[in-house]
UniProtKB/TrEMBL annotation:
Source organism superkingdom: Bacteria
GO molecular function: oxidoreductase activity, acting on the CH-CH group of donors
InterPro entries found in the cross-reference section: Acyl-CoA_Oxase/DH_mid-dom_sf (IPR046373), AcylCoA_DH/oxidase_NM_dom_sf (IPR009100)
Protein name: Acyl-CoA dehydrogenase
Organism: Subtercola vilae
Lineage: Bacteria, Bacillati, Actinomycetota, Actinomycetes, Micrococcales
């Protein structure tokens, strides 16, 4: 009989045994295996208001971590839909059961341009990094207001904020609009192969303004969504750690492929080097777990808004990204080449996590964190 999948938890390992919270338990029960199943599960969660800052942020992070531990591509497909629902709710819009959503906010290349004629907004240009554009119903996109658009535009929910030329603003679009062309064949990644994230071309596509100009980046939820992505990285790292643990556990039913490099040629026992790597991996995961748990608590009690929220997101993402990168390295050293070549699930997880982690911009993001800390005026430690 197949053992039930164990949900990812942010509880301390020394905590008394308890049933997992409903959302991670549901994720462990469903275990979506395709993008379509992942999107359907995301819709199911979104109807339960699975958004950060609503009192169940920890549970949301655990659900995303559970999906990622199972399959990072599944988490990568589900997370933007949940993020879009959180954004819409923060703007005062109830998304309801309106299909699947993406968030296309990368500013690589020339920006999208939005023009206004009377009460109609239209988006034109090419947007890079549009994940699953060919499979989603709608998306939130960022665009620059064209100079001729003038001022006086109002945001959704009756914000009444003026919109000046050159300002960045968020818009909702229907991806079935005839003016949208999804560029096929541009995605050559070896990780997250199911989550095609190529360019999309917009030609005078009708758009609905969401929030006031600049609101998308300034709202508290921007930082919270960034931490939700880190919860996915954490889940992927937990998946790797579980493989390593099974390779050194005498009671494990792990395949001989994953166990091959963990035994010493001179001894039938477990290599002390594998145990050393396991110890270090455990410490790294504990750092990440504590960071995510504290972040969830601070989000729910109102201590993660404004500058504090932005600093928190930079710290948590840096902590989890650094830990996940080192776990990739240490698991590779401990297990050797065999599972990378012969274990499909392990090889996929390594490739998926390697690419997903590039959403953290390494030294650039560390420099941004350093700049934020330096601007505090006094040491924060």
């Amino acid at each position: 009989m197949t053992e039930p999948f164990v949900p990812v938890s942010l509880s301390p390992s020394s905590a008394p045994d308890a049933l997992p919270s409903p959302w991670p338990a549901l994720a462990a029960l469903r275990l979506p295996s395709t993008v379509a199943e992942a999107l359907a599960f995301a819709e199911e969660l979104s109807l339960q208001r699975a958004v950060p800052g609503d009192g169940r942020t920890r549970e949301l992070f655990e659900a995303l971590g559970t999906l990622a531990c199972h399959d990072l591509a599944v988490a990568r497909a589900a997370e933007p839909h949940l993020d879009a629902h959180a954004i819409l709710r923060q703007s005062g819009i109830d998304p309801g059961a309106r299909g699947t959503w993406g968030v296309f906010a990368s500013e690589g290349g020339e920006p999208l341009v939005v023009e206004r004629s009377n009460d109609t907004w239209q988006v034109t240009g090419t947007k890079q990094w549009c994940s699953l554009a060919g499979q989603l119903d709608m998306a939130l996109v960022t665009a620059i207001v064209a100079p001729e658009a003038g001022s006086g535009g109002s945001g959704s929910g009756g914000s009444g904020s003026a919109t000046g030329p050159g300002e960045r603003r968020l818009f909702g679009v229907r991806l079935r609009d005839p003016g949208i062309t999804v560029e096929r064949g541009a995605w050559h990644a070896r990780g997250l192969t199911e989550v095609e994230s190529g360019p999309v071309h917009f030609d005078r596509v009708d758009a609905l303004p969401i929030g006031a100009p600049g609101w998308y980046l300034e709202r508290p939820g921007f930082s919270w969504g960034a931490i939700a992505v880190a919860a996915c990285w954490f889940g992927g790292a937990v998946g790797l750690a579980r493989t390593l643990f099974e390779s050194v556990s005498p009671d494990s039913s792990v395949s001989p492929v994953s166990r091959a490099s963990s035994s010493s040629p001179a001894s039938p026992g477990i290599s002390p080097f594998a145990l050393m790597h396991l110890g270090r991996v455990d410490a790294l995961l504990e750092d990440s777990r504590r960071a995510l748990l504290e972040a969830a608590e601070r989000i729910d009690d109102g201590r993660a808004t404004g500058p504090e929220g932005r600093l928190l997101a930079k710290r948590v993402r840096a902590t989890v990204a650094r830990a996940s990168e080192e776990i990739l390295l240490r698991v590779g050293h401990a297990l050797g080449p065999a599972p990378l070549a012969l274990d499909a699930a392990h090889a996929k997880r390594v490739a998926d996590l390697t690419l997903y982690l590039r959403q953290h911009h390494a030294e650039k993001d560390d420099a941004s964190l350093g700049s934020t800390v330096a601007a505090l005026g006094t040491p924060p430690w």
